[in-house]
Amino acid sequence: MATTACFIIVSRNDIPIYEAEVGSAVKREDAAHLHQFILHAAQDIVQDLAWTTSAMFLKAIDRFNDLVVSVYIILNPLYLPGSRIASSHFDTKVRALARKYL
Amino acid sequence: MEPDVSIETGAMIRVAVLPVGHVPTPLLRDYAAMLLRHGSVSLSAISSFYTEHQKSPFANQPWDSGSLRFKFVIGGSPPSPWEDFQSNRKILAVVGVCHCPSSPDLDDVIEQFGVKCKGYASALVRRCFAFCPSDAQLEDGSKKDSNLKLFPPADRQTQEFHLQTMMQDVAASLLMEFEKWVLQAESAGTILKTPLDSQANFSSEELIKAKKRRLGRAQKTIGDYCLLAGSPVDANAHYQTALELARLTGDYFWYAGALEGGVCALMLDRMGHMDPELVDEVKYRYNSVIGHYRKSSIQDNAQRVSPLSFELEATLKLARFLCRRDLAKDVAELLTNAADGAKSLIDASDRLILFVEIARLYGKINYQRKAAFFSRQVAQLYLQQENRLAALSAMQVLAMTTKAYRVQSRASVSEHPLDDDVGQGSANGGKVLHQSIVSLFECQWSTLQMVVLREILLSAVRAGDPLAAWSAAARLLRSYYPLITPVGQNGLANALANSAERLPSGTRCADPALPFVRLYSFPLLSSQVDVVKRNPSREDWWMGSATSGPFIYTPFSKGDSNDSGKQEVIWIVGEPVHVLVELANPCGFDLRVDSIYLSMHSGNVDPFPVSVNLPPNSSKVITLSGIPTSVGQVTIPGCMVHCYGVVTEHLFRDVENLLLGAAQGLVLSDPFRCCGSAKLRNVSVPNISVVPQLPLLVPHIIGGDGAIILYEGEIRDVWISLSNAGTVPVEQAHISLSGKNQDSVISVAYEALRGSLPLKPGAEVTLPVTLKAWQLGLVDPDNASKSGSGITGRHHKDGNSPMLVIHYAGPLTNSGDPTANGSAVTPGRRLVVPLPVCVLQGLSFVKARLLSMEIPAHVSESSPIPAFGDGNSTKEALSSERKLERLVKIDPFRGSWGLRFLELELSNPTDVVFEISVSVQLENPIADINKAIDQDAVEYSCPKTRIDRDYSARVLIPLEHFKLPVLDDSFFLRDTHSNGASTSRSSSFSEKSAKAELNASIEKLISKIKVKWHSGRNSSGELNIKDTIQKALQSSVMDVLLPDPLTFGFRLVRDGSSDAAVPDMPMASMIQVEKTASEGCMMANEVTPMEVLVRNNTKETIRMCLSITCRDVAGENCTEGANATVLWSGVLNGITMEVPPLKETKHLFSLYFLVPGEYTLVAASVIEDANDILRARAKADSPDEPICCRGPPFHVCVMGTA
């Protein structure tokens, strides 16, 4: 099975600040959109769930068809709300890790 | 699958509502609405219509509290294949709705209704409700079919009551039919099938199985009817039996059905009283229901027809039951499971219903993003259908998702609550501001937003809704142009254009497309038409009010602007106004803005539209103008733009927020910066108020509006005409000066302006203004140095010119407008008229120096009067003519010892000829003593000096007549201090004041001297020589101003002392001497009695030792020595004298000249016990130094005896 994943970092105020489509599957634009749509919708679940658990890793909290959503809830005290992650180094690292584990 | 299912659905009697004959749609809607109110009919209400034919099978029916529930299916529906399994799926009643006026033939109606009812075999009750019958129809109808119920025309309330009764009748009939059905089923049994069974019809094994199962299924169905009859207890009993039987026969599908019915009965029994126990119970039982449905679908996996939809429906029913915020987790889990089932659903419409329901339920627990996600799934299913209606549905569903994806049309957003936060945030500080800006851009999933907008555009195009398509394309283009390729941008532009073609011209859309419009600047009124608020309580009404004038900073307005934070602008009715806006087209195509004009909601300004072309990636600043039409406040939220065939409003605030976001990195791109425009500017719309018409003065400088070219120091009159171009008279006017070189305006004819008031509209007044050109060098050293070479350049700079500031106003309140607030005073105006003076270099100073002239006086019979007349000769009456003569010409008999001249060397670098005239304004030195005689200052003039171009000339100014009459300490003591000679008491303060005194006296002196020039016919002016003279006089001011302590004079004495008594009378004798002995010469070899006059100019008695010497032309002393040529009688040396203050003392002596020739008499004295004043005057270095006073030389001409 071809693995495909979409990795998005969302800041508070629901602003996506980093997006990466990773995985070995052939990239289809529709699919990429679907991934983002699913992640966007999953936030409704996350925002409720985050208050009920102390865990930072919420595994498989939502799904649509075969696509499963897992979430890390982390906090960066140095983050300026709204600013986007534009570091190419970070992007490279994320993609390298994706190749390694996916 | 069916939409809108809930647990209670099982207890609802399905009623088809069918229009019979032609029923206009609004009426049908109205009738249906009336019907829908009777969704529940209580059992107690139907008892009057109910007759118990046999013993009712519903033994435990709650007649006092129960009710029958209806579910109206407007338009009806085809029979469901599953109606045996769930009796509530059957259409159990048909209600026809007829509008009698459009269906006159009642027979026809009855027939049509009968035909329609044939489609509903399951219907137990049929009624046709005919509304608004005519009298004939009423009469006719009563004889007809009992199923036709006529509703006579009546008021609404009566009709509703009528309908209620009819529905109670229907309910009672249904209840009786249910009883009949149940009794029949119990006695005769019934065959119940589902699509699941149909395939196994021919298998004998299945047939046997079915027979076994029949009883259980019948019990389940009887339970369903009990539920429909509103008897949950009976229903429960039947369901229990059914469960037992189904379990035994392994009929899991029906088992689940009975279980589900049981939950419905439980719910009905509890009458909607929700408690946690019930919730748990329902949850438990429904999970079991879902489990059994699943079991049955696994069991029947091989079959084509799947009971999956029942499992999903049950899931949805439970989710709807639990649908509360606190159980959101359970609901979300159920809905996630339900969504999983979607891909197994074969029927696309089932999937559609499933997603619709999921979306609705997510929406109910406020999971807006989830709801939006499933709504979009629904829209995609609709879009797969590729027909117009489906596209319309898709469009409507997508429109519901726009809020969650933050791409909503502005038409759906009534207000912007966040914008207020931004306003507050900016006041509270940066951090708050940032957060509130962030909140403006939250949920900006641009990829998703673009996809959604694109789908809306697609569905709108397919649905044939050009306005929605235009709006979607506009939103897409405006918000996401940086993410769209130029080709894509072009495509959107085409979509806009295509949509506009299908729209009527002038269509408005709430969503703006391009261009981006921001406020560029708010031009203040020019200084010519400036408006000033009027303070009616003050004479100078313009004071203290901030003007809208050209000055950025005024000390008056500073405090105000901090308080209000907003500028105030005043517009005047009827006078055009301008606002600059900047447009940007960041896209890759040419943008044609058909018209753009200011959007002013207040409606009291007529805006003028303009059209603009914007090339790709360009920005442009344009001026938008308008004319205020009535008094009031004006708000300018933005611009109306007519572009791509649609009129939209572009709000400045939106772009402001966008630019703020761009500055914070929250927005993809700043549309203005990517067009090469300058950085973000904070321009806010000021508070604008429109005031009634004001007068309007238009200035005009007579003789052309060009620069007034003047030579330095030139004095000229300029005429300024002011005409009132307004429609209101000027009633008050005041002129003041402003700007640099204000002192160059010598006079303004204030009276001319004041005298012309009130200045009617159209009237004109001319004001003469006298100007005196300033010195270039003093004002503008750069220019002076440049022009030093003598080249006459024009140094006209606006900044240097003075300005006339005219504050004027019309009547206090505008009588023409009675609606105006009584307390409001119409503002005044301020007109700034720059006097465009261009100063050319005129005469220039080369140098100035002080010259002293020493011409000895001739000894004559007349008294040698010192420069400042005798203090005791008060009777002396000198005519001013004589004085004048004495000043300008040097009296040969008196001499001019110590006479000082100021020599000014002037050069003329210009190309015209200058004539210089010097005049000295002199106060009579004895004026204070003899006021009656010489009260006025006397002016003395020197002859004119002509200076040709490129030549230099010198002008002499006599400085003799400025001497003070008395040498006293009032001036002098301080002067001593300032010199710091021998006193240690000197303090910095007295030094300063002494210096100031000195300077003041110098200035006084200088002010008396005027150097005027003329050039050509009408150029004349005055040289500013103040500084030059001051510089020249600085060192020797004491000599110029202060008299010597003693003055000496010689006189011939003819008749003893008689002359001395009247010292100035002997004019006649003097003239006589002059006649007899030319030039007043004496004869040799004669005893010549003479006297020396010593005058004390101080206020203290001076004792001295006087000596007189007589020298010949060779300078030899000729009274002493062996070769003495002059004999004398009397005392010449060592004469001890005491001169009282301000008096003079004579000393008589006689000379006998042996040889004719020229002699010089000099008197000198050594002052004994000189005081400080004298020492200071003599500039003595040491206190022991003898103080000598020497008089000027006097010439004596001795003639030989003929």
Please describe what this structure looks like:
The complex is a heterodimer of chains A (102) and B (1202). Chain A has helices at residues 29-49, 88-101, and strands at residues 4-11, 15-23, 57-64, 67-72. Chain A is an alpha+beta fold and 102 residues long. Chain A has a single domain, classed as Beta-Lactamase (2-Layer Sandwich). A two-stranded antiparallel sheet of chain A has the order 1-2. Chain B folds into five domains: 7-188, Rossmann fold (3-Layer(aba) Sandwich); 516-691, Immunoglobulin-like, CATH 2.60.40.10; 697-835, Immunoglobulins (Immunoglobulin-like); 844-1041, no CATH class; 1046-1199, Immunoglobulin-like. Chain B contains 33 helices and 47 strands. Chain B is α+β, with helices and mostly antiparallel strands and 1202 residues long. The A-B interface holds A 13-16, 19, 32-33, 36-38, 40-41, 43-45, 48-49, 52, 62-65, 80-84 and B 328-329, 332, 336, 339-340, 343, 362, 367-370, 372-373, 376, 405, 434-435, 437-439, 441-445, 447-448, 451, 664-666.
Strand content of chain A: 25-35%
* Envelope shape of chain A: globular
CATH architecture of chain A: 2-Layer Sandwich
The neighbouring-strand order within the major sheet of chain A is 1-2
Cα distance spanning the termini of chain B: 165 Å
In CATH, the topology of chain A is named: Beta-Lactamase
Kindly report the greatest chain-chain contact and the residue count on each side.
Answer: A-B, 27 and 32 residues
Name the poorly predicted regions of chain B: 415-430, 552-565, 778-797, 815-823, 864-894, 924-937, 972-987, 1056-1079
Please tally the helical runs of chain A, counting DSSP H or I stretches of 4 or more residues. 2
How many domains would you count in the coordinates of chain B?
A: 5
> Structural class, from secondary structure content of chain B?
alpha+beta
Give the CATH level 1 class of chain A. Alpha Beta
Mean pLDDT across residues of chain A: 81
Mean pLDDT of chain B: 74
β-strand number of chain A: 4
Classify the secondary structure makeup of chain A into a structural class.
alpha+beta
First CA to last CA of chain A: what distance? Answer: 11 Å
Structure summary, number of beta strands of chain B: 47
Organism (chain A): Eucalyptus globulus (Tasmanian blue gum)
Protein name (chain A): Trafficking protein particle complex subunit 2
Pfam family, one (chain A): Sedlin_N
Keywords (chain B): Golgi apparatus
